[in-house]
Amino acid sequence: MYAAELHGKVPSGITRMEDILASNVFSFFKYANREIFLKGYLDRLGFKISSQEAIEAELIFWPRYEEKTEPDLVILTGNYYLLIEAKYLSDFGGETEKTKAQLTREIEGGMLEARNYNKNFRLIAITADYIYKKNK
Question: Model pTM?
Answer without folding.
Answer: 0.83
